[in-house]
Amino acid sequence: MSNNSDNTFFTNKFSHIYIEKEAFSYPLTEQILARFPKAKQIEVERYSEVFHRTRQHFQMQKRAMKLILAVKQPPFLYPGADVCHDFGHSHFYYTSSALNCLYNCEYCFLQGMFPSAHTVFFVNIEDYFSAVSELLHQHPVYLCISYETDLLAFEGIAPFCRRWIDFARHHPDLLIELRTKSANISRLSKVEPAANVVLAWTLSPQAVIERHEPGTPSLTARLDAIEKAIRAGWPVRLCFDPLLHIDGWEEAYRECVEMTFSRLPGEAIREVSVGSFRVPKDYMKRMRERRTDSPLLHYPFLCQDGVYRYPDGVNRRLTEHILRLIQKHIPEERIYTE
Amino acid sequence: MIYILTALYAEAKPLIRHLQLKKKKGLGPIQVFASDTIVLTVSGPGPLSAAIGTTFMLSTHPPQPNDLLINFGICGTKSDRFSIGETVIVHKLIDAVTMGSYYPDMLVEHPFQEATLQTFPSPVDSGTPMQAELADMEGTGFYEAASKFLGPHRIVLVKVVADRLQPHTVNIEAVTRLCENALPSLETIMDRYIATELPPAPTLTEEEEAQIIRLCEQWKLSVTLRHQLLQAAKQYKIRTNQELPDLSSWLSVPIENKREGKKYVEQLRQYLLYE
Question: Where are the alpha helices (DSSP H) in chain A?
């Protein structure tokens, strides 16, 4: 069980599973536990007893991540944040069937948002569906289901994507975005594509992936997955977000965009979003405390309206450069910027 | 530094001998033994004593975030899953009085069994109803105090199974013998936790910090501006991975009033940020 390839003795991921008493009775709990027959199961009253402990070490936890199975209490849906793209939809919400991610991206806002790096799965998925159904009685809903996690990366452990897709199929007024960096598309190979479920891939130059997105699939692997998704008939969105001002950024992003559209036909892409790095002030403080060795996060960002961003000139150069490249392949009306 | 708390001197005795700890004098009523790398405290039995002993030890010897804190001692069990003399690591604690629960972070791989532990304020026997597999009289008091000083990933409870909840069957000599036999296990645990220490964050050297403080005093800066300047200096080191440049020429900048001070702080920040 040890994970001591780098001369340390961290446990394997998910060596321990914390389970809320109330969560034991849910079928999803049973399904998830069956995936980890050797894991030590520890009963908890509320998931927050583990997740919200003080002084947790996010980066150490990333090396030996645990699972927490919990029952979500209301609210199940949240209004979309201003720093996120709404793609022109007026009823923009997000929801989280899971908290935290399998990956460990250096710039990830989750490390500023959550006190723990352990993964929480909320097993009462039916309660989420009830909340969405209720909202759909009032108006159509645009719902992002993979903001505070990467659900496709977890699909082999907890089949949340499949459940959401099946739900969406019966609710045409619902439009779902499933954001991912995963290449795990084979997990959806037996799922019939739904016109109102958009698979949205975050794409970065390979240099960014290697330096700042540890554990994530390579650009080539992501493009392979997207190709398969398009062939299967899924609506696909590409997200060049966050743009990072790395050394050699012009060339890196040029290569990334050219490689992307040498593999993917522009007309098969539903839309593209572009956004440079931005993080709310409160999250950035904690992210910097947790990544004291990260030149990327200790860049002299400017804080405007409570959000840290690159200085205007840098932002503009980054965004304009990549927009010029993308516009060669995608018409302007299908490209969304902040 | 490794901090160890035991309830009884009989539990501490083999550690003091093996780790060559010396009694620290002049610290008051609680016994503390130490070497250059280890501090051990004998708190006396009971959760309240354990909390007092832990707080005393960590207040008189303040820990760094990477330090390790261990509660080492005997426990009882009703479960046949554990044999007498076995070393067990605790992954959940329950307080028998408040029924509150605590969870050390189990990030380190080890070859021992793990269990839940219930802490009682007085001795219990096999007739006592239990919600956990192990019983002791210190765990939750120790943990609650410890968690005020260190994160859950640096707090470990190492218990040696002494009896089947028949406490009268275990005398002082048996306690010492059980703990002595468990020393190799304890050392394995300490070695593994030390191996998982992450390198400390790069920070300003004393000279670099003194350089900034001199500037702050010369320019009569407010606490906020001082903080901003120190922050800019730290970020400079993280970004560039270089020593802070010599700032002595800035000391000779004449400052007439606070507004000028603020202006030069901004100039210096820009210099450190974009240099």
Answer: 27-35, 48-51, 58-63, 110-113, 125-136, 160-169, 206-212, 219-232, 249-263, 281-290, 312-327
Its CATH class, for the domain covering B2-195, is alpha beta
Which residue positions in chain B have pLDDT lower than 50?
none
Record the tokens describing residue A205, joined without a space: 């130059």
- Decide if A2 touches B, using CB distance below 8 A: yes
**What is the count of residue pairs from A and B with beta carbons less than 8 Å apart?**
95
Q: Which of B102, B107, B110 to mutate to test the interface with A (most CBs of A within 10 A)?
A: B107
Cross-strand bridge partners of residue A200: A179, A237
- ipTM of this complex prediction, to 2 decimal places: 0.92
Q: What is the pLDDT of residues A109-130, one digit of tens each?
A: 999 999 999 999 999 999 999 9
Q: Is B274 on the interface with A (CB under 8 A)?
A: yes
In chain B, which residues fall in CATH 3.40.50.1580?
2-195
**How far is it, in rounded angstroms, from Cα B44 to Cα B29?**
11
Say yes or no for a CB contact (<8 Å) between A53 and B114: no
What confidence tens digit (pLDDT) does each residue in B113-145 have? 999 999 999 999 999 999 999 999 999 999 999
Q: Which CATH architecture has domain A74-116+125-337?
A: Alpha-Beta Horseshoe (3.80)
Give yes or no for B202 touching A (CB within 8 A): yes
pLDDT at A1 over 60: no
Considering only CB atoms, B198 lies closest to which of A43, A53, A60, namely A60
Q: What is the predicted pLDDT for the residue at B224?
A: 85
Domain edges within chain A: 74-116+125-337
Q: Which amino acid is at A271?
A: E
> CB contact, 8 Å: A133 with chain B?
no
